[in-house]
Design brief:
By secondary structure, the chain is an alpha/beta fold. Helices cover 39% and strands 25% of the residues. α3 packs parallel to α7 and α4 runs parallel beside α5. The radius of gyration is 52 Å and the shape is rod-shaped. The N and C termini lie far apart (180 Å). The relative contact order is 0.07.
């Protein structure tokens, strides 16, 4: 039997067809080794265990965040034989696994995003209080959803809640959450606040909330964000990027809306305070009016007294300037008809004059005028 001889290209083509049929995708877990990024775009690394090592190839868009050799990863990809570079697996999804690797991945990503200022306090926005419309991103079948809705309605009510049902753990969670943020961001009328929430869980369960994609989606939200993950020990990166974080879904609802019972009690107390304050103001105003009336009366009396004194002084002055008073002292007034004669220069011989005394007048004819020289 003659051996079949094929070219390298034919072999690569046949092998890839076989791999595509037998292993269209594979999922491999192993320790990261020889990790490098080329030209800021291409990613190369190996996954190894005690006995073997497999090469991987992908783009930076496949990365969940910064990685380091020694981390445990789960990679979903397609096995292929490259005609020039040999066998490798083309990455479709990369996920850190194991608590140690998850924590390390989160630490590396946190340091990177902190350098970018993504967690800075001065970029955080104030949440509206209370909002009239809330965008809620969580699983509709979760206790987190039920608790949030229950507390919102029991505390305040009347708030519109637009819920987008997403997976909050597993491979689909990251994609679902990013799509939900995109829906709200592209809405003609986005909600007043977007709430991303879920209950507690292990590091694996919460892995989606420590990915770069979800963290950036929270930071880039068009609406202010509130992230509530039901755990207290560790804080997810999505919470650090949010405008505000809450410890639980119930706590998120409490932060967003007031308690109507407490508000009603506060209104009653405020009404009582205002009534008491108004009564005090009225009493004080009455006292001020009485005092003002007393002061005004005293001022009027003083003004009248002063005016009377001025009037008396004016009367005295007028009396002194009255011609009748002068006449009573022996002086006379000399007139030529209606004109008063005040100088000898106004008098001529044979001129008819009138002399007024205090008790009557006489008519005279000037006989002789003697001027003082």
């Amino acid at each position: 039997m003659q051996d079949i001889i094929i070219t390298p290209s034919d072999f690569v083509s046949a092998l890839n067809q076989t791999l595509e049929f037998a292993y269209p995708t594979v999922q491999i877990e192993g320790e990261l080794a020889n990790y490098k990024v080329s030209k800021g775009k291409w990613v190369y690394f190996d996954l190894k265990d005690e006995y073997a090592s497999v090469k991987f190839f992908g783009t930076v868009y496949n990365l969940p965040g910064p990685l380091e050799d020694g981390m445990m990863l789960r990679v979903i990809g397609q096995p292929q034989m490259n005609p020039r570079y040999g066998f490798s697996i083309t990455c479709r999804q990369i996920t850190p696994v194991g608590e140690g690797s998850l924590i390390k991945a989160a630490q590396l990503l946190q340091a990177k995003l902190e350098r970018e200022g993504l967690f800075a306090e001065d970029r955080k926005r104030v949440l509206p209080y209370p909002p009239t419309r809330i965008g809620l991103i969580t699983s509709g079948q979760s206790a987190a959803y039920a608790d949030f809705i229950k507390i919102i309605n029991s505390r305040w009510g009347g708030v519109r809640i637009d819920h987008l049902d997403v997976q909050v753990q597993g491979d689909q969670a990251v994609t679902d959450i990013m799509k939900a943020f995109d829906v709200f961001n592209t809405s003609a009328h986005p909600p007043d606040v977007v709430v991303l929430t879920r209950g507690g869980g292990s590091a694996d369960d919460l892995a989606a909330f420590n990915t770069e994609q979800v963290t950036r989606a929270v930071a880039g939200s068009r609406s202010p964000t509130l992230v509530a993950i039901g755990h207290e020990i560790d804080i997810c990166l999505a919470e650090l990027a949010a405008d505000r974080r809450a410890s639980t879904p119930s706590n998120a609802a409490e932060l967003l809306v007031p308690d109507r019972t407490a508000e009603l009690e506060a209104l009653v107390q405020y009404k009582q305070y205002m009534s008491s304050h108004l009564l005090a103001v009225l009493t004080h105003s009455k006292q001020e009016i009485i005092q003002y009336k007393t002061d005004l009366q005293a001022e009027m009396k003083q003004l009248i007294k002063h005016s009377q004194a001025e009037l008396k002084a004016s009367a005295t002055l007028l009396d002194q300037l009255n011609p009748d008073t002068v006449l009573k002292r022996g002086y006379v007034l000399v007139r030529d008809k209606a004109t008063s004669i005040t100088s000898i220069g106004q008098v001529k011989s044979n001129q008819h004059l009138q002399i007024q005394f205090k008790d009557g007048t006489i008519d005279i004819i000037v006989k002789n005028v003697n001027e003082v020289r």
